[in-house]
Model the fold of this input.
Amino acid sequence: MKRKPIQVHHFTLRDEHIELHNLLKIVGVADSGGQGKALVAAGAVRVDDAPESRKTAKIRAGQKVTLDGVTIHVHASDAAASDAS
Done:
């Protein structure tokens, strides 16, 4: 039995956080924010290996979002990292 290949995306934040459904849309996992919300509502999304049911959960740098065959690593922008210093 063949396993589905895993897609890995790296997303760099422009702000402090991004809402989960928007992240799914921006990286191309969902065609729209509405489809992103539907994926979350269906229980298909995990954040840092824990199930996430909040469609507008604030995803911050350092977090990992996973769903069937897809992993998204969220990173801080260089500007945001230097502002935190």
